[in-house]
């Protein structure tokens, strides 16, 4: 069958959908509708036949860009309608905008989560009441198609050329352990303080000879469209000039994927970068403020999940994060020795 999978949300949501895509692709053709923001995570994915995309209007600032986005959305709409699908699958809970795309697909069956969904959704998966990781929740959508497989790992495909470019930027001739610190988060309650990252970097460097890659969301904090952490990264880099810390500025998701692929272990708060780290198979120490670790935690990679008791990562001390990092590092090294 031809399946159109609709995933309109953020980068992390799409990455966490890749195990479902892989499961469906074992029996069916899978095409995916995404937006231009999250689309790069599907580059090179062998389980996706066609990728349709559109631009969210609030991501464009100029009138010319907005007109171009509308024109491309019309083309995407026509392409989906012309193709026609056996099944449209809304990844996650149903919503009106995703449902509009499902209708355009002319699918005979529409699958989504939500028993309160309108009748056009033919297969309604009940809302999940038990504690469950999002990956496990999403694969429930494959059950109406007879797929009972267990979900595998997250799947991101970084090319050798991309990794080589990233390696050239940091000069990887040095064989010291390479640790990643990712400082950005979209949610304020998930932002660990700059001074904590500075202290953590110094403690890791004092413990053993190592190199540290600093990752962050590019851009100024006062950018109304895409606020970034250039200022925070500059403070950390200046305060860590006495250790081997490499500010790794990225301009797109693919560069972040390639940079993280070089690391031996990563610290990051919950968000898209966390799932990129897990998607390239890296051990992760994940910091959670006002989101649930059981639902959004690292999927099928060695990890430590630290959850703040007051819903803000500020309450996680450097002692806690450092201790979890070293504990995880020792576990990974032990597993490598035992094979």
From TrEMBL:
Entry keyword set: Glycosyltransferase, Transferase
Entry-linked InterPro entries: Glyco_trans_9, LPS_LOS_Heptosyltrfase
Coiled-coil stretches: none
Transmembrane spans: none
Alphabetical list of CDD domains matching this protein: GT9_LPS_heptosyltransferase (cd03789)
The keyword rRNA-binding belongs to this UniProt entry's keyword annotation: no
Keyword match Transferase: yes
Origin: domain of life: Bacteria
Pfam families for this protein: Glyco_transf_9
PANTHER family, per database record: LIPOPOLYSACCHARIDE 1,2-N-ACETYLGLUCOSAMINETRANSFERASE-RELATED, TETRAACYLDISACCHARIDE 4'-KINASE-RELATED
Name of this protein: Glycosyltransferase family 9 protein
Organism: Serratia aquatilis
